[in-house]
Design goal:
alpha/beta; UDP-n-acetylglucosamine1-carboxyvinyl-transferase, Chain; 2 domains; binds ligand EPZ
Length: about 425
């Protein structure tokens, strides 16, 4: 398992481009199974999660090729209705196979995904939605078994105790596009990644109204065709780069950072007096050379609220603010694996229920730390850039799941970072 050795104190300078959105690619790869025609996907990031999703759809019977960087061609002429445990258990986002298999084959057997370090990852809303569509859904042998012979459009309220569900919305949309009749999904996820998936489905011939709003209206069609789709830029990567540049007191232009998708995060940064400026609609420039951050309060919420996927990064950055910040996690209340590791670097953070109370400004010192999940890993890199001395971040396969060559991009901006290969 590789590690990153980071020497803090370097000031980043230059420009970096944001890759395609991981959390759009995963449902979009699944959506290619809705047709026997070829789908061409562009601006696909070079991530281990994406490569794994490509392996999964290939295992399910699709012909998959990667003819050029960022370009994937997928054609599912043949398709199995079973997604085995040994595939699904490695990446829970493969739960997104449930919708397309149900729609295309009128049956599906997808292994129940496990939980993960950020918290329990239930799928009760996915099941609720399929049952509302008239599907028979049973849990047998650790599988979600779906019989969709009688599937038809329905009115579905898809909100849960934590609000909307992103992959749950993806699954029910992908089932409904081939369900006879009309489906209305209330409290649907509004995340841009779901809107992007809906855009691709429309390109395949689906009839979807309200994408990006909490109410989706889907008119089922009998068949979908192939399409060509360019994946939208990754707003979470963009937000991560803003935090990396700020922590390193850098001067960085982040290309592809779409302000329309970052409103809640930029609002928090404005309240913190983080010195960024938007350049047009899809670039953000930050000059943090003389930054003095103010403490903030922030609470994660479903989009367009402050994204849970930027919570850990903000925690790391707020260790450099002058005062006490309170960051509350309403999506995954246990998503604080980064806190003990940040404290090992000298941060002063106290957990209080679903909140982290961060007292700044603290002088961080480099230390050996361990990555635990994708966004917690990014938080450790942010802290390492601001720390005095060397930080060794181990288990950075977590980072590679969601960030394309972050070490190379950091080095090109002037960071002192080295990837240490650890073949075991
Ligand atoms: C997606 O996960 C993202 N992953 C996550 O990003 C992201 O953190 C999450 O949405 C929230 O924005 C992908 O898109 C691949 P949810 P998902 O269903 O769809 C509860 C990253 O770092 N819930 O929107 O699995 C659930 O427990 C990853 O890139 C139910 O109660 O999340 C959570 O509290 C991590 N029942 C909340 O809803 C359900 O049936 C939101 O979950 C489903 C979810």
């Amino acid at each position: 398992m590789d590690s990153l050795l980071i020497k803090g104190g370097a000031h980043l300078e230059g420009e970096v481009s944001v890759a395609g959105a991981k959390n759009a690619c995963l449902p979009i790869f699944a959506a290619t199974l809705l047709t026997d025609q070829k789908c061409v996907l562009k601006n696909v990031p070079e991530l281990s999660d994406v490569r794994f999703m490509a392996e999964i759809v290939a295992e399910m019977g699709a012909e998959v090729s990667n003819p050029a960087k960022g370009v994937w061609e997928i054609q599912a002429k043949n398709l199995s209705h079973v997604a085995p445990y040994d595939l699904v258990r490695k990446m829970r986002a493969s739960i997104c196979l449930l919708g397309p298999l149900t729609a295309r084959l009128r049956k599906a057997e997808v292994s129940l995904p496990g939980g993960c370090v950020i918290g329990a990852r239930p799928v009760d809303l996915h099941i609720k939605g399929l049952r509302a569509l008239g599907c028979g859904v049973e849990i047998e042998r650790g599988f979600i078994c779906v019989d969709a012979k009688k599937m038809r459009g329905a009115q579905i309220y898809l909100g849960g105790r934590f609000g909307s569900t992103v992959t749950g919305t993806a699954n029910i949309v992908m089932a409904a596009v081939l369900a006879p009749g009309t489906t209305v999904i209330e409290n649907a996820a509004c995340e841009p990644e779901i809107t992007d998936m809906c855009k691709m489905l429309s390109g395949m011939g689906a009839i979807i109204d309200g994408a990006g709003s909490p109410t989706l209206t889907i008119t089922g069609v009998s068949k979908l065709g192939g399409t060509e789709h360019t994946v939208l830029p990754d707003r979470i990567e963009a937000g991560t780069w803003i935090a990396l540049a700020a922590a390193a007191r850098g001067k960085v232009l982040i290309k592809g950072a779409q302000k329309k998708h970052l409103g809640s995060f930029l609002d928090v940064l404005e309240r913190a007096e983080c010195p960024f400026e938007t350049r047009g609609n899809s670039s953000i420039f930050i000059d943090a050379s003389s930054m003095r951050l103010k403490p903030v309060e922030a609470t994660t919420l479903p989009y367009p609220g402050f994204p849970t996927d930027l919570q850990a990064q903000l925690c790391a950055l707020m260790t450099q603010a002058n005062g006490i910040s309170v960051i509350t996690e309403r999506i995954y209340p246990e998503r604080f694996m980064h806190v003990p590791e940040l404290c090992r670097m000298g941060a002063n953070i106290v957990r209080e229920g679903p909140s982290a109370i961060i007292s700044g400004k603290t002088k961080l010192s480099g230390a050996p730390v361990m990555a635990s999940d994708l966004r917690a890993s990014a938080a450790l890199v942010i802290a390492a850039l601001a720390a005095k001395g060397e930080t060794l971040v181990s288990r950075i396969y977590h980072l590679d799941r969601g960030y394309d060559s972050i070490d190379r991009k950091l080095a090109e901006l002037g960071a002192k970072v080295e990837r240490i290969k650890n073949p075991d």
